[in-house]
Structure formats: C-alpha cells, structure tokens
TrEMBL record:
Transmembrane segments: none annotated. Keywords: Hydrolase, Protease. One of its GO terms (biological process) is signal peptide processing. It is found in: Cell membrane; Membrane. Belongs to the peptidase S26 family. One of its GO terms (cellular component) is plasma membrane. The active site is at residues 54, 102. Residues 1-20 are annotated as: Disordered. It comes from the Bacteria. This is Signal peptidase I. It catalyses: Cleavage of hydrophobic, N-terminal signal or leader sequences from secreted and periplasmic proteins.
Amino acid sequence: MARSLNQEPKKKKPVQPSQENPWLEGIKTVATAAILAFGIRTFVAEARYIPSSSMEPTLQINDRLIIEKLSYHFQEPKRGDVVVFNPTAALEARDFHDAFIKRVIGLPGETVQVKGGHVYVNNQKLSEKYIAEDPNYDYGPVTVPPGEYLVLGDNRNNSYDSHYWGYVPKEKIIGKAFVRFWPFNRLGSLDTEPLYPSQK
C-alpha cells in the first residue's frame, strides 16, 4: 500500500548511554590524578624540606622548597645555584642514601681553593654574603673534573660537602632549588642578586 506523502517515518528510539559504575569513575579519576602528579614530580618539580642546618642562614631547618627539574636539561648548572642531588658513589660507600642540598661553587675545569677564610675560584676571591661564617679550614687547590661540580654548604663549618667527599656528577643532580614556599614570612626565590665574578 502506498504511503501518504505527509506521513512521517517512524523514528528510532534514541540509544541511552550506559551508566558507568560510580566507583569505577572514581578510580579512574584518582588514577589519572596520580599519574599526572607522578609525572610532574618526576619530570617537572617537587617539594622538599630542609632537615639539617648545613645551608644556614640561607635555608633553615624545616624550610619547604620547590625544586624545579627542567632547566638542567637545557643548560648547565651555574655557580651560586642551590641544587638537590642524589648521593654520589663516594657518599653511597659511606652509607648515605637520602638526597643532599648544597650550593654550586666550582664548575667543570675550574680550580677551587679555600684558604684564609675565603673561597677562591681560578684565583679570584668569591664575594659570599650569604654564608654563616668564614670557613675555618683550608682545602685545595683542586681542579673540578669535566661533567662534575664542587658544592659547599652555606654553613661552611658545619656542612658535609665536597671538601670532605669530592664532586657531584651532573647526572646525580635532581634539580635546582627554585622558591621557598614555607614559612610564609620568608616566601620567595633564593639569592636573586649576582654574588660572583662574571662567568665565561
């Protein structure tokens, strides 16, 4: 039988989307957040706290910092950078397993010496307004190997650093201390003023 011209064809019933289990949705959300957080912490930045006095007065015990991890993929550490690094082979041999935080003083190929209460790099005395007190020890002269860095704590006379155990290979460096976010009264970046002779 012929169909009338104004007769509408029967419409199909719309398919209803299936309702996903809310528990499954929650698990997916948490898993996604965890993956993102892990990715950011592994490759971009992470929070760290200061457990010792070796970086006083710049960093106090229980200060909270953001450590950024990207810049050293594109540039070399600079003198004055405060860096977090995994224990070197020399430190692991002495049963140290936690990360350290120190200031970069000697760059690859430079000669470093501590004498008369001052640090010298390539025979130039560093102007170090941030240290707790002048170092009361003599060290060097030593030449920093290629691809490695000499690091010292700002609390020079109470810091277990390169003058005890040697140099930090670049691959051991986790990242650069970027900003202090706790306590609030000392919130901000670290040492923004130039403190050193010009670097070539």
